[in-house]
Design a protein that fits this description.
Helix 4 packs across helix 7, helix 8 crosses helix 15 and helix 12 crosses helix 13. The longest helix is centred in the C-terminal third of the chain and has 18 residues. The chain has 2 domains: 255 residues, Peroxisomal Thiolase, Chain A, domain 1; 161 residues, 3-Layer(aba) Sandwich (Peroxisomal Thiolase, Chain A, domain 1). It is built from 15 helices and 15 strands. It is 35% helix and 21% strand. Strands 5-4-6-7-1-8-15-14-9-10-12 form an 11-stranded mixed beta sheet, sandwiched between helices. The protein is globular, with a radius of gyration of 20 Å.
């Protein structure tokens, strides 16, 4: 018999995300406001050799002002490491915790990302070319490897807990939540600090997202208008890459006492198809199976869901994957009723490290407030959708569960059913 899905408390959240009006989103009130209202926080991007014009960039955030780090620590850290430190610092502060409160044996610090501090590589080559390889010193080990991000956070904030780095594609944060949940189920930890971070606005990454392949697929929109990133819309020209960090503190209430926070159970299932690219073939059958298994784990069906919060990002290819997956779930479950869709890909951009945590926290807050956020920038719903996107203004709901679904073009699939069981953030 599998271990029971634990009741968890999300007791704090920290943010270094793109925000509205040229200011970073760095607090829970701003986060909820932009998600609730579907406010696009995408901003102009320019590079003389690349066609990208918009991205989810963090503006108006000064690490020297925001972080409890020395000037030397800041100078020797990557941007990804600094943003992750800011998010974790904010999450612990909201949870009312200090480093001294964290049991080294029962607390895990987990960082997830697509590429961690990869943008630092460009700086290394410039330095090596100008001053020679000896000038690099320990730069690569300090801020260019995946562990350097979690190392920056742990050493900068003096956190004594065990650490783990997880790399992956679009749904890496959901896969990380699945891994952390297993650690709770096994009784290995009582508290986890999970931070998702990416700085995917470097020229090398952007060159890939703005390239149009032979099939016509291109990840990023080349428009200079943020409202042209339109998940679930009849008109879709691509997504927007970006940067940012989001951290959450998850706790076992039975072990950490009665504290404020959002109580929930999360049922997760992850898998991967190693067959042909789903850009050409559509999503594998395992996506439908994953969703059905996740719903069964929660004892729920499609008709019990308040909404589906998905990863369709403004690309027709990815949208069609979602459509096929949801249509398959409907057919397999024999369900022909309402299925409401919400989406935040046009709010902060399509960023792997933060995406799943945006979905987790955003969905929990929607369930807490009884308000489904709109699918941002959706004007005329795509005719092929086997569901109804929530449009501007949002929609009230009385439901207590939601499905988060990532059906990626690369074959990755993760589904998560969130069951909200009460509480509120501090």
């Amino acid at each position: 018999m599998p271990a029971e899905i634990p009741l968890l408390r999300l007791s704090g959240a920290g943010f270094v995300l793109p925000g509205p009006d040229g200011h970073a989103c760095s607090d829970a009130d701003t986060f909820w406001r932009v998600v609730r209202d579907g406010v696009s926080c995408l901003s102009p991007y320019s590079h003389p050799e690349l066609p990208l014009r918009i991205a989810g960039t963090v503006e108006g955030w000064d690490p020297e002002r925001e972080l409890p780090l020395s000037e030397r620590q800041i100078r020797r850290s990557s941007r990804a490491g600094l943003m992750a430190t800011g998010a974790v610092h904010g999450a612990l502060e909201q949870a009312g915790l200090t480093a001294a409160d964290l049991d080294p044996e029962r607390t895990a610090l987990v960082a997830c990302s697509l590429q961690f501090a990869f943008p630092e590589t460009e700086r290394y080559y410039r330095l090596a070319h100008a001053e020679g390889f000896a000038a690099l010193g320990m730069e690569y080990w300090l801020n260019g490897t995946p562990p350097s991000v979690v190392g920056t956070v742990a050493s900068g904030l003096g956190l004594p807990c065990q650490t783990l780095s997880v790399a992956g594609s679009c749904n890496v944060a959901l896969r990380t939540l699945h891994l952390v949940q297993q650690m709770f189920r096994c009784g290995d930890i009582d508290r986890a600090v999970v931070v998702g971070v990416d700085t995917t606005v470097d020229p090398v990454f952007v060159a890939g997202t703005s390239h149009t392949g032979r099939s016509g697929y291109r990840a990023s929109s080349l428009s200079d208008d943020p409202s042209d990133v339109r998940p679930h819309d009849e008109i879709q020209t691509g997504n927007a890459t970006g940067e940012g960090a989001l951290a959450v503190v998850l706790e076992n209430p039975a072990a950490t006492g009665d504290r404020p926070g959002l109580l929930h159970r999360a049922h997760l299932r992850t898998s991967r198809s190693n067959g042909p690219s789903t850009v050409a073939t559509g999503p594998p059958a395992n996506v439908v199976g994953d969703v059905l298994a996740t719903l069964a784990s929660a004892g729920r069906g499609p008709g019990d869901l308040a909404f589906v919060n998905d990863y369709a990002d403004g690309n027709r290819f990815v949208e069609d994957h979602l459509c096929q997956a949801l249509a398959g779930v409907r057919e397999a479950a024999g369900y022909g009723g309402e299925l409401l869709l919400t989406n935040q890909e046009a709010v902060f951009g399509h960023v792997a490290g933060t995406g799943g945590l945006v979905k987790l926290l955003g969905s929990l807050l929607m369930l807490r407030h009884g308000r489904i956020a709109p699918s941002a920038n959706t004007l005329k719903p795509y005719a092929g959708l086997p569901g109804e996107p929530v449009l501007a203004g949002g929609l009230a709901t009385g439901g207590d569960s939601a499905l988060v679904l990532a059906s990626g073009a690369g074959g990755d699939a993760t589904s998560m059913v969130i069951e909200y069981e009460g509480g509120d953030l501090p």
